[in-house]
């Protein structure tokens, strides 16, 4: 994660959006280390990835935490009710693994579940919230993801805030990621993001991602549909989490990778990789560590960009970013071609998107400098299938501020094709 601003809730000191490394989509819950020595859930896997983050430029780009997901435990607690790491796969123990991360200037994240069991069938935290919070603090954990399997969803408004209080009680800064709304997809009337954001720093709210364009696109469709509910409740200390970056995995092309990175960044979404950094190709590494794109994601205002133009295959998103002069912001614009097979041309003026001033404009993937653009200037381009463009428009040194009636960017009128 980047930055040092205070979170809105829990006792952690990080207020910027999440950049990290998680393993679920790449390695799932493989525990047979004899059969899969380089792909099983064990401490060596996490140590290997930490080394790659530290040595291959990812940490310098902002990816500064390693996440352990499900299946790290023994199937039973010890006699005192304390969670125990699987002794054959994690012989150093969780505290030792956290130290390995900290020695490399990386944070350490761990997984649990609010229910009686985790999704993988390991001991859950129901009935042990205080014990587990104290255990994670004693192990020097920096981040907790609390899943929601094997529990009555009506208990979630009680249990997730209770775990927040228990984490705070330890006195250790621990980022708190909740899966609370993800289990209420079929009951949207029960999802109150203002309530959730009072306890959780970030939260999942849709299906798990897989390494396919169909999966990425389904998340984009859901977030587009829900943007009027998401945008007002998204920002520093309280983030909607559309799930992991699957960039570098089989089934994902370079164009798909740039598209996912573009849309996640226009949303100010957590950037949490799930891939194998030991074998990733250079072109995907370059996409993941594009610092200009990451800067859009990590913009200090933390605003979620809005879909403002939508046809059957193209979407145009606008996001206010810094620098800000008076009441005027700079902007990022993303253009997405969702189609699997055809190229798409696009053109629009800044005024059509509600941008009234003059901006120094650059496309962040190709580094094409479009120069100084005003309200009547066109942005034109052509996108291949499942690809995207991302433009950064910086205010022209505070000059040419036009006091016009702006097209509202955050109203409810969206053009559907």
UniProtKB/TrEMBL annotation:
Family: Belongs to the glycosyl hydrolase 27 family.
CDD domains for the chain: GH27
Alphabetical list of Pfam families matching this protein: Melibiase_2, Melibiase_C
Limits of the Alpha galactosidase C-terminal domain: 329-393
GO cellular component term of the entry, any: cytoplasm
InterPro entries hit by this protein: Aldolase_TIM, GH, Glyco_hydro_27, Glyco_hydro_27/36_CS, Glyco_hydro_b, Melibiase_C
GO process terms (BP): glycoside catabolic process; oligosaccharide metabolic process
The protein's name in its UniProt record: Alpha-galactosidase
Keywords: Disulfide bond, Glycosidase, Hydrolase, Signal
Species, as recorded: Diploscapter pachys
Primary enzyme class: hydrolase
Signal peptide annotation: none
């Amino acid at each position: 994660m980047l930055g040092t601003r205070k979170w809105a809730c829990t006792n952690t000191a990080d207020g910027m959006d999440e950049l990290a490394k998680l393993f679920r989509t790449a390695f799932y819950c493989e525990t047979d280390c004899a059969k899969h020595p380089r792909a099983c859930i064990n401490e060596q896997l996490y140590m290997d990835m930490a080394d790659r983050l530290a040595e291959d430029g990812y940490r310098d780009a902002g990816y500064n935490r390693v996440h352990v997901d499900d299946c790290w435990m023994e199937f039973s607690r010890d006699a005192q009710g304390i969670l125990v790491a699987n002794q054959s796969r994690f012989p150093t123990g969780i505290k030792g693994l956290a130290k390995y991360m900290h020695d490399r200037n990386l944070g350490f994240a761990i997984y649990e579940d609010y229910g009686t069991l985790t999704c993988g069938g390991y001991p859950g935290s129901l009935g042990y919230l205080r014990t587990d919070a104290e255990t994670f603090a004693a192990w020097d954990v920096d981040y907790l993801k609390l899943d929601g399997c094997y529990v009555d969803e009506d208990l979630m408004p009680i249990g997730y805030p209770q775990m927040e209080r228990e984490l705070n009680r330890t006195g250790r800064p621990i980022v708190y990621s909740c899966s609370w709304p993800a289990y209420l997809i079929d009951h949207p009337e029960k999802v109150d993001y203002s309530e959730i954001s009072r306890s959780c720093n970030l939260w999942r709210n849709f299906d798990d991602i897989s390494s396919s364009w169909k999966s990425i696109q389904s998340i984009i469709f859901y977030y587009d549909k829900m943007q009027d509910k998401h945008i007002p409740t998204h920002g520093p200390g309280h983030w909607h989490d559309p799930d992991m970056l699957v960039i570098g995995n089989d089934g994902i092309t370079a164009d798909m990778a740039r598209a996912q990175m573009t849309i996640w960044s226009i949303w100010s979404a957590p950037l949490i990789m799930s891939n194998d950094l030991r074998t990733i190709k250079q072109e995907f590494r370059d996409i993941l560590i594009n610092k200009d794109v990451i800067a859009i994601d990590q913009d200090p205002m933390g605003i979620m960009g809005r879909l403002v133009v939508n046809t059957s295959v193209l979407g145009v998103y606008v996001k206010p970013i810094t620098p800000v002069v008076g009441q005027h912001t700079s902007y990022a614009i993303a253009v997405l071609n969702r189609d699997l097979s055809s190229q798409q041309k696009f053109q629009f003026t800044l005024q059509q998107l509600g941008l009234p001033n003059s901006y120094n404009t650059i496309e962040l993937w190709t580094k094409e400098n479009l120069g100084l653009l005003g309200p009547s200037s066109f942005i034109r381009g052509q996108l291949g299938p499942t690809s995207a463009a991302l433009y950064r428009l910086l205010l022209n040194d505070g000059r040419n501020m036009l006091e016009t009636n702006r097209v509202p960017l955050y109203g409810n009128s969206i053009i559907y094709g």
